[in-house]
Write a structure and sequence with these properties.
This protein has 339 residues and is of the alpha/beta class. Helix content is 40%, strand content 17%. The protein has 11 helices and 14 strands. The chain is globular and about 55 Å long.
């Protein structure tokens, strides 16, 4: 298939491009590089031995997007492009809604104009908010009052927009994929997560402490109602997540309409468990201190994996140890990220 990947130079997009190329698909990437580097795509080409057509294009530029569609015949689109920092979205709500909503609207209008009607969308477990039931499953109610920040609300709104588009034109097939906590890196060490500035997320923070760029990890609270007092998350290896997208693309060929899947490993791992696993598998020590809770953090978030297993025939295969080993290999081989 010929697949357009928006945001393909980013963390999850680049790893998914590897899988797509290795399964024989052709890949065209559209990315404005606002949170990534083109080097990531060159590394993807090195891993796969195949080439990627890249357009440095902003989804907000509808005419430029339209020109790309005029010159290509796409079977499906995987839509990763978006701004993703929950905290930043609180201080810059307009930028988040403009980028994430308008970008998606432009993409769908151009798709519609060119009769491309298969879409995989990057949603997030954040759409569940502070749900009463754990593990989280796809039939839990989702509304824009669930997430506590504009980033999360942009995901709920986009899910609604896409459902409306399917109602208006039932020929559309849409997979809404709600990711849990993507971490790790390709086992070549050639691509991985390369955040700008000081990392917000736990795994890149850990790897930057161990490489010596940061002094120590602050554990945000150890008084949660969990076995060791630190929050439980569903860390999923980014290559497992990438494979989930291939399964979703396959699913869309069966004409399912709108389908929603949680993509997680289905295990709740605490901050301290992740720290210990990282130390053990990599033979390192992570200096840490316990600080206060981070505003908005939930005690527990992990998924019920049964729907994805049943309908996508997909489940995460890689362990927490694989995740820790691969994240550290990437950081060691690229102490300053992509150059
Ligand atoms: P990322 O920032 O590494 O990748 C996103 C890519 O989109 C970047 O390369 C960026 O340059 C590009 N982009 C952003 N706005 C654009 C625009 N207007 N036009 C063109 N390109 C644009 O993020 P990621 O971690 O790979 O996440 C990918 C998607 O998955 C995002 O939509 C994110 O919200 C979602 N998601 C991520 C996580 C996570 O923890 N990483 C969890 C749940 C959902
Ligand atoms: C994990 C755990 C922290 C950093 C975020 C977004 C979510 C989704 C995935 C996009 C938490 C603790 C962290 C640190 C710590 N993204 N922590 N010290 O918050 O589960 O989810 O990424 O959709 O929307 O909110 O991930 O990696 O930031 O935190 O103790 O320096 O690590 O408190 O318990 P989170 P995270």
């Amino acid at each position: 298939m010929n697949i357009l990947v928006t945001g393909g130079a980013g963390f999850i997009g680049s790893h998914t491009c590897v899988e797509l190329l290795e399964r024989g698909h052709q890949v065209v990437v559209v990315d404005n590089l606002c949170n990534s580097k083109e080097t990531a795509l060159r590394q993807v080409e090195k891993i796969s031995g195949k080439s990627i057509q890249f357009h440095k294009t902003d989804l907000l530029d509808r005419e430029a997007l339209d020109r790309i569609f005029s010159n290509e015949s796409f079977d499906s689109v995987i839509h990763f492009a978006g701004l993703k920092a929950p905290g930043e979205s609180v201080s810059k709500p307009l930028a988040y809604y403009q980028n994430n909503l308008t970008g998606t609207l432009n993409l769908c209008q151009v798709m519609s104009h060119h009769d491309v009607k298969n879409l995989v969308f990057s949603s997030s477990a954040t759409v569940y908010g502070d749900a009463a039931e754990i593990p989280l499953h796809e039939s839990l109610p989702v509304s824009s009052s669930n997430p506590i920040n504009p980033y999360g609300r942009s995901k709920v709104m986009i899910e609604e927009i896409l459902k409306d588009q399917h109602s208006a034109d039932p020929e559309w097939n849409i997979a809404l994929l709600r990711y849990f906590n993507p971490v790790g890196a390709h086992d070549s060490g050639l691509i991985g997560e390369d955040p700008n500035g000081i990392p917000i997320n736990l795994m890149p923070y850990i790897t930057q402490v161990v490489i010596g760029k940061l002094d120590k990890l602050t554990v945000f609270g150890d008084d949660y109602p969990t076995p060791d007092g630190t929050p439980l998350r569903d860390y999923i290896h980014v290559m497992d997540l990438a494979k989930g997208h291939l399964a979703a693309i396959d699913k869309l060929t069966s004409d399912p309409g709108v389908v929603t899947y949680n993509l997680g490993a289905g295990r709740g791992v605490s901050v301290l468990e992740l720290v210990k696993a990282f130390e053990k598998v990599n033979g390192v020590t992570i200096p840490l201190q316990v600080g206060s809770r981070r505003s908005g953090d939930l005690p527990t978030s992990y998924t019920d994996t049964s729907l994805a297993r049943k309908e996508l025939h997909w489940q995460a295969e890689l362990s927490i140890e694989d995740i820790c080993r691969d994240a550290w290999r990437w950081q060691q081989q690229n102490p300053h990220g992509f150059s």
